[in-house]
Structures are given as C-alpha cells and as structure tokens.
C-alpha cells in the first residue's frame, strides 16, 4: 500500500491526467504537484504523503484500492518497476512458488518465513499460570497480528526483519506499531482488549481518518486469522527441529511475533530486552500454552466478523460492532470457552 501511495503521488507530481483527474481540478492538482516536487517521497512517511492529498484525491486512491479493475488501479499495479519492488507476505506463499501468479510479466515474489521467536522458560511458566487465572490476552495478540499484517502489506516488505535499522521504513514500521497497538510498546500499559468488537473499535480509531476501508480491514482480519489458526496437521521431523516450536501447530503465529520482535531489538550491548520484545515473548508463551480449540474459536469468530466488516460501507467510522448470529455482543466467545 505504501508503494502504491508513492506511485500515486509520483504520478501526481508528473502531472499525469490519469492520476490527477478531470479539468475541474487542474488548479488543485498543480498545487499538489508543486508540493510534491519539494518532498522526498522515498523518505516520506505514510502520514506525510497522505496529508498532502485533498479529500477528493484520497477518495480516488481508496477507490482504486477497492477496485483493482479500474483504470487507475491498473496503472498503479502494472508498472514494471512497481511489480519488481513488491514482496508479498510470506504467509501467502503457495506450496509451489514456480506456479505463482505473475504481475506485469514478473513472477510474484514472497518473503521468507521469519526465524521463530525464542521463548524464555520463565515466560512459559509465567504465562501458564496467568492463562489459568489472569485476563485473556488473546485479543491483544490478535490485534498485534492484524497490525503486523497491515505494516507488512503497506510497506510491501516481508519479512519486516529484512529492514535494516537505518532504513526509513524500519522507523516507519516501529512508529506504526506504537500508534496502532500502544499497549505493546508502552512499558507501563496494562490495557487488555475485552472482545473482538473492542479490538475493531480500538484499531479503527487509530488509523489516519479516511485511510482505511472496510474491505481492506476485513482482509487484515483474515490475515491475522490465517496466522493465528493452529495447523490441523503438523509434519513431525525425523530428527529434532533446529528451531524450538518449529513443529508446533501455532508456528506461523510465533514466526509473526518473532518478526515484530526483531523490529524492537536493542543493541547487542544492552542486557535487557525492550518492553515490546518482552511482551511479545509473553504473547508467544501464551499462544503455546493455549489449547488449540480456544485459538480456533477466536479465529472462527474473527472470520465471521470479517464478513460483516466487509459489508460496511461507511468509511468515516468504525464498522458496526455486530455480533455473529446466535451470539451476544456482551460476552466474548473466548470468555465462554475459558
């Protein structure tokens, strides 16, 4: 998404009629092009670029995202240079990459699965006790995975750990996590999301106004569900796996958390982990200690809610906090199971 927005801006700066619109907006578009000429698009953040667009241009860009068949979307997506830069999320890689779909004559590239997170024994023990008596953190974990999917897609980078610390997009990724899931990055935060409805409201309100659509949010919900869903069948290696938990049913969720943790690693000289890294290790331990049927229930709930979100057409507010048929909105499914 970030690369698409930059491509849209570059087209605007070049005064391309297909990007800018009709004659009625010539003066407005000339002003935008003038602003963009002085902006370093390579180093500009998403918010900085978005702030330069008028409401009409924002609407045009979002419509292009929601309608891949439109002329503007095709121009954005079929650029050969753009196609070469896109790296699809690692969790979408098909079993046979050689038969992956092509974009602009270029074979789709997928990121490599991140290295699994290291879970200290103390975190495993603490999480086991907390899982039995403490509040459920599963909605916090799901929100973190949804944010991970968003950052991965909008930066078109996978895995995120491939970004070097000095890269502007590395800083942008950290900034987005701090903005969307502050309970992860703030040391003293004790926020516990109580339900999926609360999770949707929390995240939606933290996106730049007008920058999120129900269709895209639903896609992110499905991404997070895909990562969190335990594998029904796990291939057991003849020898002990090189990575701990490599054959765990929730290995993909653990890989995603490891990828986020890599963004917040401190220098080698620092003895203590960052607050985000410590919380992510605890989240990973909670996943390992949570029965598969509970994780599956959350995933099923999220998939049902994603279908409702996708039908929501009002872009100016969060999707309706509507419970799936047969369930009440006052009692989360996870609480019923635990």
UniProtKB/TrEMBL annotation:
Residues 11-30 have a biased composition (Acidic residues). Residues 1-30, 89-111, 317-338 are annotated as: Disordered. InterPro entries: ZNHIT2. Residues 1-10 have a biased composition (Basic and acidic residues). This is Uncharacterized protein. It comes from Phanerochaete sordida. The lineage of its organism: Eukaryota, Fungi, Dikarya, Basidiomycota, Agaricomycotina.
């Amino acid at each position: 998404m970030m690369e698409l927005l930059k491509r849209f801006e570059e087209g605007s700066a070049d005064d391309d009629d297909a990007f800018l619109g009709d004659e009625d907006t010539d003066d407005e578009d000339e002003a935008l092009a003038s602003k963009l000429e002085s902006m370093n698009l390579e180093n500009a953040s998403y918010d900085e670029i978005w702030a330069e667009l008028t409401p009409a241009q924002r609407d045009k860009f979002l419509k292009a995202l929601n309608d891949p068949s439109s002329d503007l979307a095709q121009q954005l997506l079929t650029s050969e240079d753009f196609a070469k830069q896109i790296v699809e999320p690692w969790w979408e890689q098909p079993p046979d990459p050689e038969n992956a779909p092509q974009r602009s004559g270029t074979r789709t590239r997928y990121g490599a699965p991140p290295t699994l997170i290291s879970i200290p024994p103390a975190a495993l023990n603490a999480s086991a006790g907390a899982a039995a008596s403490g509040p459920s953190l599963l909605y916090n974990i799901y929100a973190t995975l949804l944010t991970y999917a968003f950052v991965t897609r909008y930066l078109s980078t996978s895995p995120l750990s491939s970004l070097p610390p000095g890269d502007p997009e590395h800083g942008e990724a950290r900034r987005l996590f701090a903005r969307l899931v502050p309970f992860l990055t703030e040391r003293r935060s004790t926020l516990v999301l109580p339900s999926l409805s609360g999770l949707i409201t929390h995240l939606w309100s933290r996106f730049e106004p007008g920058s999120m659509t129900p269709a895209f949010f639903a896609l992110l919900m499905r991404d997070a569900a895909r990562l969190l869903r335990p594998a029904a069948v796990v291939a057991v290696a003849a020898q002990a796996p090189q990575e701990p938990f490599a054959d765990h049913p929730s290995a993909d969720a653990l890989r995603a958390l490891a990828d986020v943790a890599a963004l917040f690693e401190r220098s080698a000289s620092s003895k203590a982990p960052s607050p985000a890294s410590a919380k992510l290790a605890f989240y990973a331990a909670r996943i390992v200690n949570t029965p598969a049927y509970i994780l599956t229930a959350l995933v099923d709930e999220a998939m049902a809610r994603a279908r409702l979100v996708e039908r929501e057409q009002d872009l100016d507010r969060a999707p309706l906090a509507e419970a799936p048929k047969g369930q009440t909105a006052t009692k989360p499914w996870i609480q019923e199971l635990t």
